[in-house]
Design brief:
3 helices; elongated
């Protein structure tokens, strides 16, 4: 049988060791991930027509695998994983919404562009479904990783709520290497 001081010492040692394990876990959680952003489109056909409308860009809808700030990679068609230590600066749908908003503003051809939250009296609303936004392992296509961006976009006339145009856009861009910056550049090209 152990004495009271022996039990006390054993308890202090056990607590100290569990504290070290907790500190190790906390350090891992506190290690910052590299944050990545994309750039809005800034060059356009000079003959792009000017339109006198107010356009609201809604936040894109997306499946939960994409509706995150984690950067997705698909090692197979049925499996989704995420790059470790790398994140988008925001959830992917908000990132895409921001890029669309800034790209429309950069045209200088639309009277007013904004998010739904600012309360614009929209003439049209851009409704987007972010269907794919990931890198894929593609050993048979000549590149280790292919970035896939797939958007379905609808223009809705307000206030009637009538869809006046709908189109899907899908771009596959090979990443030059498996370096994270190169992969993000492929995302930037595909979204642009």
């Amino acid at each position: 049988m152990r004495s009271a001081p022996g039990i006390a010492i054993a308890a202090v040692v056990a607590l100290g060791l569990s504290g070290c394990a907790g500190l190790s876990t906390l350090t891992k959680v506190a290690t910052p991930a590299d944050l990545y952003d994309l750039t809005p489109k800034s060059t356009y056909d000079p003959d792009l027509p000017e339109i006198q409308v107010q356009l609201v860009i809604e936040e894109p809808t997306a499946a939960s695998a994409v509706n995150t700030d984690r950067i997705a990679v698909r090692p197979s068609p049925f499996k989704v994983q995420y790059f470790p230590d790398a994140r988008w600066v925001d959830r992917a749908p908000l990132l895409v919404q921001t890029m669309l908003l800034e790209s429309f503003e950069n045209t200088r051809k639309v009277s007013a562009v904004g998010r739904q939250a600012i309360g614009l009296n929209a003439d049209f609303t851009l409704v987007t479904d972010l269907r794919e936004f990931q890198a894929e392992l593609q050993g048979d296509r000549g590149a280790a990783l292919i970035v896939v961006v797939h958007l379905n976009m609808k223009i809705v006339k307000e206030p009637q709520g009538i869809i006046v145009a709908s189109q899907s856009f899908k771009y596959d861009v090979p990443a030059a290497s498996d370096d994270m910056e190169t992969i993000v550049e492929a995302f930037d090209t595909a979204l642009g």
